[in-house]
Amino acid sequence: MRLIDCYDALLLDLDGTVWMGDEPIPHAVDALAGCATRKMYVTNNASRGPEAVATKLEGMGFEATRDDILTSAMAAIDMCKRELPSGKVLVLGTESFVDLVREAGYEPVNSADENPVAVLQGHNPDTGWRQLSEASLAIHNGALFFASNLDATLPQERGLMVGNGSMVEAVVHATGVRPHSAGKPEAEMFHDAARRMGSRVPLAVGDRLNTDIAGGNAAGMDTLHVMTGVSGHHALVAAVPAERPSLIATDLRDLYSPLESLKPGRQGDFSAMVKGNDVVLAGGRSDSTAMQALRTVLDVVWKHDGPTPTSIIPTSTVAEKVLAEWR
Predict the structure, then answer these.
(1) Which residues are CB-neighbours of 321 under 8 A, at least 6 positions away?
(2) 190-237 pLDDT, tens per residue?
(3) Contacts of 324 (CB under 8 A, 6+ apart)
(4) What does the longest C-alpha to C-alpha distance in the chain come to?
(5) Peptide bond before 314: cis, by omega within 30 degrees of 0?
(6) Which one-letter DSSP state was computed for residue 49?
(7) In the annotation, is 5 catalytic?
(8) Of the candidates 60, 12, 20, 15, which has an alpha carbon nearest to the alpha carbon of residue 40?
(9) Angle CA(145)–CA(47)–CA(185) in degrees, nearest 5?
(10) Contact 199, 38 (CB under 8 A)
(11) Which GO molecular function entries does the Swiss-Prot or TrEMBL record give (predicted)?
């Protein structure tokens, strides 16, 4: 049975999974265009409002409306609402984040002198020392601290840029206060997305182990890791149990692959065994792939009771060839 036939909804990450910066991930548009399964885009990036995210997706060739988007900014506001139904809120974020805060019934402010009851921090490339200092002052004065997400990096065309989590750490260092985080890897965004869709069997899809996959796992959902963004082959081998996906795909085209073929297990005539601190990878055919080798290795490493092996040792020409493709 195809993977896509086993789930009633896809909870899709954006950065590194569907797009990279301002370009769609190769094959993503066609893969999702042929997918009748309901989709919601669940993103830790709080720099755009849901309408802008939908517009960007449509501009790349995807089908999306505002109702198909759940951002960590929206989740952070919901979290703040449960603690503080009203009041002044100091917002570190884009104008779209400020608009969402206002729509939720709060009064957005820019200064700690306004005595805000909370600080909400989301990604904004223009955030600088003055804004971070106002947040620090407000928190020292008793404001509660909420962050849209704690991603240390943000995948862009040029590489990994500074993410919201890195900016949040500046405020944490200045105040000693850690924020309540609404975004991945917390489970709440995934539960919220499933509730909005009425989904009973959702699949969480992403490229980053410590947010997308850890969050989906924490929510009790099956998880699909795609190799198009942050976490590569070696990161999967070293992954702690909470960050191990149920399924491993090359990209979104594998939504149409047989479910069993995407699980860790022996594939491509490879064999693997743990030997001391290493994994020995042998065998393979001329048409065997790097992903088949990866699933073969993961099967033995993730079942291993001892310390995680530190290196992969190829003992065949094919194994050596495919390992050179790992990142």
Answers:
(1) none
(2) 998 999 999 999 999 999 999 999 999 999 999 999 999 999 999 999
(3) none
(4) 68
(5) no
(6) -
(7) no
(8) 12
(9) 60
(10) yes
(11) pyridoxal phosphatase activity
- For the chain, the distance separating the N- and C-terminal CA atoms, rounded to the nearest angstrom, is 30
Q: Within a 10 A sphere around the Cβ of 106, how many other Cβ atoms?
A: 24
Q: In angstroms, rounded to a whole number, what is the distance separating the alpha carbons of residues 202 and 286?
A: 36
Name the catalytic one among 5, 8, 15, 192: 15
In order of 22, 76, 149, 217, 256, the CA distances from 61 in angstroms are 12, 29, 27, 30, 20
And the tokens for 249?
Answer: 């795909």
Cβ atoms 123, 154 nearer than 8 A: yes
Q: Give the pLDDT confidence of 75-117 residue by residue, as tens digits.
A: 999 899 999 999 999 999 999 999 999 999 999 999 999 999 9
Q: With beta carbons less than 8 A apart as the criterion, state whether 245 and 223 touch.
A: yes
Output the pLDDT for position 314.
98
User: Six-digit token pair at 112?
Assistant: 């700690």
- Do 118 and 41 meet the contact criterion of CB atoms below 8 Å apart? no
Q: Would strands 311-314 and 278-283 be described as parallel, antiparallel, or unpaired?
A: parallel
Q: Which of 8, 13, 151, 207 is labelled catalytic?
A: 13
Decide if 126 is catalytic.
no
Distance CA(69)–CA(53), nearest Å, equals 7
Rounded Cα gap, residues 58 and 55, in angstroms? 5
DSSP annotation string for 238-302: H--GGG--SEEESSGGGGGSBGGGGSSS--TTEEEEEETTEEEEEE--TT--HHHHHHHHHHHHT
Beta-bridge partners for 20: 23
Alpha helix stretches (DSSP H) within 144-212: 164-175, 188-197
Q: What are the pLDDT digits (tens) for 256-308?
A: 999 999 999 999 999 999 999 999 999 999 999 999 999 999 999 999 998 89
Which pair of tokens denotes residue 312?
A: 């992969």
